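tokens incoming
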């Protein structure tokens, strides 16, 4: 007889809870949402209000690293009435929950769930680490104590945009340390469609945020994009301003964009 693992017991407990009480309600930024119980947040994340504001009036948003769909719900609420949001998530279980949350809130026709591991090139097969629907799942072994790998095929966002014929005007990227790999597969989209990008940067192991920003600035220069440190609402030329940060949020903004005027209206004190 095999010994039952803690993770297996947790899976059984989750299944029982889903059957007994599969949904719950929660208030996010003044709006009540019906959610799958697994998606109920402890409270509003510090970037929710900024993302909701950034999405105002947008017609096509890519939510890369959508987790359980809360940011997708928030951003869709302020997008143009005919706007669509594409929610990208690697975990199959998380994708099911995102789809359920969209349907529970009448947004199944506006939130398109894409089960894919986003990277610099399509067709690679790489290891992905995380549990069934973890917000800290990553391609980095051991990140947030995740060590069980799954083999996943990759997709580049440039290929997705070209294949679906969409024209994104905003991207949210939160991929737990894989930011540079995602952005490396986005050059064509940035050059043609000139979207605004909200990116969460992470440090891990020997990789620091200043090192990541230095490489990112090299990529942005030929694309005529600027990097804005949201906490300071300032354009960054020197990566050293991020020294000591383990996680932070930046905007990648086309040089010609008028968004710099709108930036002053955002409350970014918690970022």
């Amino acid at each position: 007889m095999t010994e039952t693992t803690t993770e297996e017991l947790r899976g059984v407990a989750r299944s029982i809870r889903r059957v007994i009480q599969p949904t719950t309600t929660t208030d996010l930024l003044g709006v009540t949402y019906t959610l799958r119980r697994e998606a109920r947040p402890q409270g509003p994340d510090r970037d929710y209000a900024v993302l909701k504001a950034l999405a105002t009036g947008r017609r096509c948003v890519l939510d890369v690293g959508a987790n359980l769909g809360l940011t997708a719900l928030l951003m869709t609420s302020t997008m143009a009435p005919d706007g669509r949001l594409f929610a990208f998530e690697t975990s199959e279980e998380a994708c099911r929950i995102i789809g359920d949350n969209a349907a529970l809130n009448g947004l199944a026709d506006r939130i398109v769930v894409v089960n894919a591991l986003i990277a610099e090139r399509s067709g690679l097969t790489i290891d992905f680490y995380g549990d069934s629907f973890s917000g800290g799942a990553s391609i980095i072994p051991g990140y947030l104590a995740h060590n069980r790998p799954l083999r996943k095929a990759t997709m580049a966002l440039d290929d997705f945009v070209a294949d679906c014929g969409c024209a994104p005007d905003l991207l949210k990227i939160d991929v737990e340390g894989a930011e540079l790999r995602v952005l490396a597969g986005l050059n064509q989209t940035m050059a043609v469609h000139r979207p605004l990008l909200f990116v969460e940067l992470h440090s891990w192991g020997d990789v620091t945020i200043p090192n990541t920003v230095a490489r990112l600035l090299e990529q942005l220069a030929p694309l005529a994009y600027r990097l804005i440190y949201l906490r300071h609402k300032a354009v960054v030329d020197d990566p050293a301003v991020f020294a000591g940060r383990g996680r932070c949020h930046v905007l990648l903004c086309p040089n010609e964009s008028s968004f710099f005027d709108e930036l002053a209206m955002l409350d970014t004190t918690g970022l």
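note: The domain at 21-263 is CATH 3.40.50.150 (Rossmann fold).
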